[in-house]
Specification:
The protein has 162 residues and is mainly α. Helix content is 64%, strand content 4%. α4 (65-78) runs parallel beside α8 (122-132).
């Protein structure tokens, strides 16, 4: 397994995901396990970001890949009618929306103790999912609004002295 997957699977979170069960429609990458769509996105995104080897868009300080790709691939596993073109289009939209919002927020979020992955990055996942779920304009507006209201994250964990 990869070091980042090892990190994600070596947590209580993985145990909780396994215990929760659900409709096993999406993979926990590299583990041979399947779980619900939302739990797969949670574990795979955490794995992609935890090891700090994911991509970064310097201006917005967002790591879009660890948000967009787990979302897109879990939805693709759950909905086999989605094509490669659908996935690429959704990934492009997710990056574009999330990074533009991150650019508008500027690095001041980060410099004031907020984690842009949680504050701006939520829009990457929401736009990616919304496109793959074929949301209309009004539904996408609501999805992005919910993402914005739920977005959060502090850099305090990086500053903690245990």
């Amino acid at each position: 397994m990869s070091p980042w997957l090892d990190a994600a699977l070596d947590t209580e979170g993985f145990e909780i995901v396994q215990e929760e069960g659900g409709n096993n429609v999406a993979s926990l990458w590299g583990s041979g396990h399947r779980t619900s769509l939302t739990n797969a996105v949670l574990v795979n995104s955490t794995a992609g970001h935890a090891f700090e080897m994911d991509d970064i868009h310097k201006e917005s300080i967002v790591h879009p890949n660890s948000l967009a790709v787990p979302t897109a691939l879990a939805l693709a596993e759950a909905d086999p009618s989605l094509s490669g073109s659908d996935i690429v289009t959704a990934l492009t939209l997710g990056y574009e929306v999330g990074l533009r919002i991150g650019n508008a927020a500027t690095t001041s979020l980060f410099l004031n103790g907020f984690h842009p992955q949680g504050t701006s990055g939520v829009f990457v996942a929401a736009a990616t999912a919304g496109r793959l779920m074929r949301l209309d304009a009004s539904q996408m507006q609501h999805a992005l609004g919910i993402a914005g209201s739920m977005g959060g994250g502090l850099m305090a964990a990086k500053k903690a002295r245990w």
